[in-house]
Write a structure and sequence with these properties.
This protein is mostly helical. The chain has three domains: 413 residues, Na+/H+ antiporter like fold (Up-down Bundle), CATH 1.20.1530.20; 66 residues; 69 residues. Helix 4 packs parallel to helix 12, helix 6 runs antiparallel to helix 7 and helix 14 crosses helix 15.
């Protein structure tokens, strides 16, 4: 099968599995995609793809990491910078040496240098896998942001550790000074170059759109999609970390986007494009991982013969050891935090053991681990085979599968034991922002008009009448969004809670009726087109207006339901 056909088949299967997963709630989508890929490549005549680690890292990883860096909350990322660095650097080094020694002790046939290389391969969590597994599980916001930040940064430290472990195996020489300097150059150089590329793109985009506005929105979105590939390839060409360069470019670009509130078309196209890219590439990554499994697993198990269970047991033992080291590091961090808090007389937040276990199980490995394992050279400098390379690739693959299965099954079970948090912080902040926006709108409507029209009494009367209707609508939204525990105005206090609740419910029903009216408008427009009274261009323009209005109404309705603690089924979408 040609490369183009393979890419199209992988993308098609990624889309189909994404749809099918909606009907299979109990199994995580990555596991479904890995299983499907394995089934497709299992027969001798099945779908077989030669896995090129460098091509894989250059093609699939940059857009996914860029999107994660672009979407991650920057305020939380900065607030958690020290815990994230301790996980991304400290935990990786702890895992490399701790797990490397464990592997060498458990499997003496694997040399120490190769054992350290294997530990380096499996040390970083995978940003794609972590996002895919934890997205809708209800992890506390702080823990989720910590895991996202860790998975974005620890790929570089793990791959650097792999590089030096492989070099030590090939040459028999290892220098701590060279390793430290190499890591600093790769990490700081990657972050700096990525930030520079992101800033340069943002500056150029701002200069162009200042002149032409949203006219070039489509072209700008296309350039934004190509940006992570440019950052990765340029960083690798210079000799710094392409992964960190992509993440830094994503974070920098998002900072620039905060100043672009006026470019509506570009913002909507960007959001839709990245959603599609993430979905397509996520599916492709896990399908490609599944396609490699039969050849890797089959070759190793066939070589093991009647003791085929032994390498499988070793992969499971390494996975358990990996998670145990992660749990130990997280527990030490919790204990250290409590000790520092007692020293300063502060009441430190006390993460529960359940939450620590959840963060441990979320340490999922993915495609970057496989790419790192397959990047290990086949031959030594003298032409002899690289020692235990086949075992390294198999054990890395087994670790990916074990952590995915353990995380997919264990995380939902563990998170059920967490006590309810009440209103999530993000939901509370969103509600308060909506309130602030409504009050700002009322203040803008109440401002005295200026210009030549202000002297026209008829125009002023019409404006005041229209402003009064709009202000009343905003006040209804404020009634829905206000915190019941907050102090109320004297007018609101005179109203009974039952009357207030009924008034809020009436406004919710009104928004539902507006949605129904929009549906009627849209049906009428399509009927006009079917009767050939309008053309396709007019239909698209008019329907787009209704679509935007419906998205706004649906979001406002959902926010009002959350504020009133109403189930979605109580009022019809």
């Amino acid at each position: 099968m040609h490369t183009v056909e393979i890419v199209l088949v992988v993308l098609l299967l990624g889309a189909l599995t994404g749809i099918g997963a909606r009907y299979v709630r109990g199994i995580a989508l990555p596991l479904i995609q890995i299983a499907l890929g394995a089934l497709l490549s299992w027969p001798r005549e099945g779908l077989h793809i030669a896995f090129d680690p460098e091509l894989f890292l250059a093609l699939f990883i940059p857009p996914l990491l860029f999107a994660d860096g672009w979407r991650i909350p920057k305020r939380e990322f900065y607030a958690l910078r020290m815990p994230i660095l301790r996980l991304a650097l400290g935990l990786v080094l702890f895992t490399v040496f701790g797990l490397g020694l464990l592997i060498h002790w458990m499997i003496p046939a694997i040399p120490l240098g190769v054992a350290l290389a294997l530990a380096a391969v499996v040390s970083p969590t995978d940003a794609v896998a972590v996002s895919a597994i934890t997205r809708n599980l209800g992890l506390p916001a702080r823990t989720l942001h910590l895991l996202q930040g860790e998975s974005l940064l620890n790929d570089a430290s793990g791959l650097v550790a792999l590089k030096f472990a492989v070099a030590a195996t090939l040459t028999g020489v290892f220098s701590w000074g060279d390793a430290a300097r190499g890591f600093l150059w790769l990490a700081l150089g990657g972050l700096g170059l990525g930030a520079l590329i992101g800033w340069g793109f943002a500056t150029a985009r701002e200069a162009v759109t200042r002149r032409v506005g949203d006219v070039a929105a489509t072209q700008m979105v296309l350039l934004l999609v190509l940006l992570p590939f440019a950052a990765y390839l340029l960083a690798e060409h210079v000799g710094v970390s392409g992964i960190l360069a992509v993440v830094a470019a994503g974070v920098t670009t998002n900072f620039a986007d905060l100043r672009r509130g006026a470019y509506i078309v570009e913002r909507m196209q960007t959001e839709g494009t990245w959603t599609m890219v993430e979905s397509a590439f996520n599916g492709a990554v896990f399908l490609l991982l599944g396609l490699q499994l039969p050849s890797i697993v089959g070759r190793t198990l066939a070589a093991a013969g009647h003791v085929w269970w032994q390498p499988a047991a070793q992969a499971l033992a390494i996975s358990v050891g990996l998670l145990a080291l992660r749990w130990l590091w997280l527990s030490l961090g919790v204990w250290g935090r409590r000790w520092r808090a007692r020293q300063h007389g502060d009441a430190a937040a006390r993460p529960t053991s359940v939450l620590t276990l959840a963060a441990t199980l979320a340490g999922i490995r993915g495609a970057v681990t496989l790419a790192g394992a397959l990047s290990v050279p086949l031959l030594m400098p003298d032409g002899t085979p690289f020692p235990a390379r086949g075992e390294l690739v198999f054990l890395a693959t087994g670790t990916i599968l074990c952590t995915l299965v353990i995380g997919s099954i264990g995380l939902p079970l563990v998170l059920r034991r967490l006590p309810p948090e009440g209103e999530p912080v993000a939901a509370r902040e969103e509600r308060r922002a909506r309130l602030a926006a409504c009050r700002a709108a009322i203040a803008r409507l109440a401002a005295a008009p200026g210009g030549a029209q202000a002297a026209d009494a008829a125009w002023l009367a019409q404006r005041q009448e229209a402003a009064g209707r709009l202000t009343q609508d905003y006040r209804k939204r404020i009634d829905l969004l206000e915190d019941p525990a907050a102090p109320r105005s004297p007018e609101a206090q005179a109203e009974s809670p039952e009357a207030l609740q009924q008034r809020r419910r009436r406004y919710l029903v009104e928004m539902e009726l507006r949605l129904e009216a929009l549906h009627g408008e849209r049906d009428a427009l399509y009927a006009e087109r079917h009767a050939h009274r309008i053309n396709d261009e007019s239909l698209r323009t008019l329907v787009e207006e209704l679509d935007l209005a419906e998205v706004s109404l649906r979001n406002r309705t959902a926010a009002a339901r959350r504020a009133l603690d109403l189930p979605r089924s109580e009022l019809r979408d």
